Amino acid sequence: MSNSSVLITPDNQQTVLQLDKINKVFNEGTPLANHVLHDVSLQVSRGELVALVGTSGSGKSTLLNVMGLLDLYSSGELRIQGHLTQGLSEQQRTQLRSESIGFVFQFHHLINAFSTIDNVLMPLMLRYGKPNQEQTEYAQYLLNEVGLANYAHIATNRLSGGQQQRVAIARALVSRPALILADEPTGNLDTQTADEVFDLFERFNVEHQCAIVIVTHDPRLSARCPRTIRLTDGRIVYDGASANLPNAFTKTV
Amino acid sequence: MSFFNAISRLRNSLWIEWRIAIRFLAESPLQTLLISVAISVGAAVIVFITALIMGLQINLINKTLGTQAHIRIEATQQHNNFSEFPEGKYVWTFENPRAQRLQTINNWQEVRDTLDQYSAFNTVSPLISGPAFATKGSARSSVALMGIDPKRYTGIINLEEYLTEGQFSIEASDILIGYQLAKDLGLRSGDKLRIDAGDNHQAVMNVAGIFELGVRELDSRYVYTSLKQAQTLLNLPGGITILEIKISDVFSAEYWAQRIQKLTGLYVQSWMESNGQLLNALNSQSMTTQIIRVFVAMSVIFGIASVLAVSVVQRTREIGILRAMGSSQQQILRVFLLQGGLLGLTGSLLGVLMGYTLIQIFNAIDTKLFVIELETSMMLSAIFIATLAGVLAAMVPARRAAKYDPAVAIRYV
């Protein structure tokens, strides 16, 4: 793939993510059809920090996968940085994903065969091959930022859960994406570590002005996000300031 | 070497794929080691068996063709001529086949000179051969009298090499006889021997040397003399009965035999025709080897494929992560193809080394039988083919890996 993007124009897109009446049906057209997302419409702008909440099975993860182009949607319109994703080839989807989106998963999902810094550099290496000095320095800078400066050349399976999650965050940031999608990033961390990891999200959100969508079960964390989107049975039932989230919802979480 | 240059160029253009492939292989060392050993055993068997059979065949051919020409040209056989009979009538004839008396090849000098111009022929040697009796005292033995042109005949059988006694000379009344005949008639070099070719053509000859060709039939019957002597004795002045040819590529003998037949109209026979049994044996040997090689190669390919299929399942989650990190389907495909190729490469390198060692051991144990040689080109082609087979074997698992749905793969535990 070439270094210059064919998909992203370098203008200041304020709307990073735009969903319009997105539907997702698994096993479409078969008796096992399962309608997971119903007419989901939302917008995420540059620099926003959004919590995506809902009970298990409400479709949060599916929605996140659709936003991240990991999964196809059945109908509707999805734009990433203004680009319509309808009808893109697998290769174009991959390129758009690698240029615009960073992922953080619940089980940190590092590749144990590689060292910490190589894990951070992975999105760049997959795109450009052997990393140059500037890329390596940036990865090292990100490791400093997440407090793992001295762990660069250590195998990732020797790190603790919290440390691994911080590596995953550094990795999500290395390609300077406009959007970070995090699926239960603090799901298997203790409260204190979870807070530390969330601090990082907040900091990078402000410093790098990237939009962040976090799927979480933890009401304390969602309360720290300025905006909350709530899904029930694949429908958005609340989208607004976290502070105004009706009590009825917070209780059931 | 350009082979390794190509590898290093491949490494640079597929930097990250190469790196991931190597790390994946290194991360499960036991699995990698086991399949490499399995591949190397297969490659060693193929290399060893190929070299063994090749050595055996070369040995057999050399032994058989060492004492005979590759192509023999004789005068056309004599046959009865019938007068033409009127059309529409049936003629019932009773035919006695003609006796084949010795007859010369017409214009043999011209034929010889024409054939000399072909670069495919190493030697074209005239020969006059006919039956005679050899007598010493009251002992008598039937022999084949062979009149040769000594310079040219060296290219067919280098008699000097086979001499066990005396010296190579067929000038004047000198003859060379086989050691079996010498034994039968109690002769040593320097002794006299009477040759009787019938029709009162006889002469007392001088045994100049005794040879041993290692073929009993030849050692008990061949008596070599000069062309002139033989022509006189066999009453065929100036004539020869056979033109013998040696060619560089022994397996093209049949092709050339047919060409010469068309060119000269003479009776031409290649060694392949006169040694049908040998050729048959060689062919079935080659076929057997081929079958063994195919089956061994198949088991190696399936071995690589199954190990990679397991590896793809083991790596499902990592494949999902790589896809989410922006790797393309083609990159994933190449990672697994490379793993297959690398397994084939290392396995076959080890295997060729093992095959080489086996051959050295074989040669050291029994040098009397025959020596196997391992050609560099064969080793290189074994490595090349094994690497290619590795890539091919990886095709199915690699395609599966590339087709994984990243959203599903990433949740795989």
From TrEMBL, chain A:
It comes from the Bacteria. InterPro entries: AAA+_ATPase (IPR003593), ABC_transporter-like_ATP-bd (IPR003439), ABC_transporter-like_CS (IPR017871), MacB-like_ATP-bd (IPR017911), P-loop_NTPase (IPR027417). GO terms for cellular component: transmembrane transporter complex. CDD domains: ABC_MJ0796_LolCDE_FtsE. PANTHER family: ABC TRANSPORTER ATP-BINDING PROTEIN MG467-RELATED (PTHR42798:SF2), LIPOPROTEIN-RELEASING SYSTEM ATP-BINDING PROTEIN LOLD (PTHR42798). Belongs to the ABC transporter superfamily. Macrolide exporter (TC 3.A.1.122) family. This is ABC transporter ATP-binding protein. The lineage of its organism: Bacteria, Pseudomonadati, Pseudomonadota, Gammaproteobacteria, Oceanospirillales.
TrEMBL record, chain B:
Residues 32-262 form the MacB-like periplasmic core domain. InterPro entries: ABC3_permease_C (IPR003838), Lipoprotein-release_system (IPR051447), MacB_PCD (IPR025857). It is found in: Cell membrane. GO terms for cellular component: plasma membrane protein complex. Pfam families: FtsX (PF02687), MacB_PCD (PF12704). GO terms for biological process: lipoprotein localization to outer membrane. Residues 294-406 form the ABC3 transporter permease C-terminal domain. It comes from the Bacteria. The chain crosses the membrane at residues 33-56, 291-314, 335-359, 379-396. Keywords: Cell membrane, Membrane, Transmembrane, Transmembrane helix. It is a multi-pass membrane protein. Belongs to the ABC-4 integral membrane protein family. LolC/E subfamily. This is ABC transporter permease. The lineage of its organism: Bacteria, Pseudomonadati, Pseudomonadota, Gammaproteobacteria, Oceanospirillales.
